[in-house]
TrEMBL record:
This is Uncharacterized protein. PANTHER family: CYTOKININ RIBOSIDE 5'-MONOPHOSPHATE PHOSPHORIBOHYDROLASE, LYSINE DECARBOXYLASE-LIKE PROTEIN. One of its GO terms (cellular component) is cytosol. The lineage of its organism: Bacteria, Candidatus Kaiseribacteriota. Gene3D superfamilies: 3.40.50.450. Coiled coil: none annotated. It holds the Pfam family LDcluster4. It comes from Candidatus Kaiserbacteria bacterium RIFCSPLOWO2_01_FULL_50_24.
Length: 233
């Protein structure tokens, strides 16, 4: 297929199909599943295969028709986004910064491979919460404390979680947390194969949407039948 390119003053030049048919699957954006990818911004201790594993996760998210959601950051999430864009995927970033300038000059974060960046202005911790809450599921790669924080939010929110088995310690740390949490959670999957992991996570998202479709008690006075329950429907 013949390709042209689009260019932004501060963005990487990204190829797109001339007739845009590769983006037809995103025509009804409200039905698009959103899969977050969480991982370390600095990956020097993650092993030599970390970049390719991250890119393959991103490719699989795009191949299966979902949007990739990240913290608009470097490292594992950046390479996952790169992989998604290689497959014509759609990417959404949640920045800790309040503006594009702050994103680049203060936080030193990239704009590359992002279709949409939401500037939260809430710093890393607030950004993490918004990113997870805005996503249907989360894939966890090699990470540090911020990744563990995002895992904890997703676990508490009962979102489907995929843990990438790799040449790092994060997968073992998270498995230990799960084993000692004394809380059953059938929505957590682990696999070293990107295709299998993403398939299981997306299948769980679709199952939950059909069978559960949780409504959370927002404490805003909406849904009076909740009786102060965390999940009211």
């Amino acid at each position: 297929m013949e390709e042209h390119t689009r260019e932004h003053d501060t963005h990487t030049v990204v190829p797109y199909p001339k007739d845009m048919r590769a983006f037809a699957r995103y025509a009804h954006g409200h039905t698009l599943l959103k899969v977050a990818v969480s991982g370390a911004a600095v990956t020097g201790y993650c092993g030599l295969d970390v970049f390719e594993k991250a890119k393959e996760i991103g490719r699989e998210i795009a191949r299966q028709g979902a949007a990739i959601v990240t913290g608009a950051t470097t490292g594992f999430a950046f390479y996952a986004t790169m992989g998604a864009k290689e497959e014509g995927g759609f990417s959404i970033g949640f920045s800790p910064a309040a503006t594009e300038r702050e994103h680049m000059e203060v936080y030193k974060l990239p704009l590359d491979y992002m279709d949409i960046i939401i500037y939260t202005g809430f710093g890393y911790v607030g950004r993490d919460l918004l990113m997870i809450r805005a996503s249907d599921a989360v894939i966890i790669g090699c990470g540090r404390i911020g990744t563990i924080n995002e895992f904890a939010v997703a676990f508490e929110d009962r979102r489907p979680i995929g843990i990438v088995d790799g040449s790092w310690e994060t997968d073992e740390i998270l498995k230990n947390i799960i084993d000692t949490a004394h809380r059953e959670n059938p929505r957590v999957f682990t696999d070293s194969d990107a295709k299998s992991l993403v398939e299981h996570v997306i299948a769980q998202v679709k199952k939950d949407k059909q069978e559960l479709n949780f409504v959370y008690n927002s404490r805003d006075g909406v849904g009076g039948t909740g009786k102060n329950a965390e999940v009211i429907l």
